[in-house]
Amino acid sequence: MNRPAAFLADPPQSAGVTAAYEDDLTSDGYVNNLTRVWCWRPDVLASFQTLRADLLAASGLSPREVAVLVAATAAALGDAYCALAWGARLAELSDEASAASVLRGSDGVLSERENALAAWARQVVQDPNATTEGHVARLREAGLHDREIFEATTWIAFRLAFSTVNDALGARPDPQLAERAPRLVREAVTYGRPVQADTSAPADSAPAGPVTG
């Protein structure tokens, strides 16, 4: 028997749920498993999305730096869902090998700023109480000013909150997401919850993406 897409049932229909589902259908062509989880409180989902957008609207961080932050955060947390999504995004903005390296926790493949941000994300995820002035000094040496350091840290925290809800409630990566991710990205994501089985595929077909969790 196939495991469920998440531990919670689908939420009851409402205007907010319908709007969230339609947004997914417009952007992705399907309703994401994580959206079904968050739509138990679609108002909270909308507020969270707005808050994240506000943070990035006037940020000095580039789209590629944001992708590095999220990919490194997801990898350090062991979150397959966001690792596949943002690993694919980072691959678009750089290349497959660089994205896969970040997802495996390696440095040295991107710019000095990006490598510093990836290292900071791992530190914040693993033990925020162990950060030192030296860690922050490294960010400054890589060219980040204090506002950008605050923005990066807040963005990591936002992503941690989002991933924690998804992972704790069993939201499994969508088969469409895994299928669209570059091969090197899929191969790098060996952690987290397994990709949901594609019910449209033959029963003996192996799902793409991570198989552990």
Please state the oligomeric state of the protein chains shown.
single chain
CATH architecture of the domain at 59-188: Up-down Bundle
- H and E order: HHHHHHHHHHH
Beta-strand fraction estimate: under 5%
Largest sheet: none
Low-confidence stretches: 201-213
- Helical percent range? 55-70%
Derived from helix and strand composition plus strand pairing, the structural class reads mainly alpha
Q: DSSP helix count?
A: 11
The general outline is globular
The CATH H-level homologous superfamily of the domain at 59-188: AhpD-like
**Overall radius of gyration:** 17 Å
Mean of all residue-level pLDDT scores:
92
- Remind me, CATH topology of the domain at 59-188? AhpD-like
CATH class category of the domain at 59-188: Mainly Alpha
Distance between the termini: 17 Å
Structure explained in plain terms:
The chain is mainly α and 213 residues long. It has a domain at 59-188: AhpD-like, CATH 1.20.1290.10. It is 62% helix and 0% strand. It contains eleven helices and no strands. It has helices at residues 15-27, 33-38, 42-57, 63-77, 80-93, 96-103, 112-126, 133-141, 146-168, 175-180, 183-188. Helix 4 crosses helix 9 (146-168), helix 5 (80-93) packs antiparallel against helix 6 (96-103) and helix 7 crosses helix 9 (146-168).
Q: Concise description?
A:
The protein is mainly alpha-helical and 213 residues long.
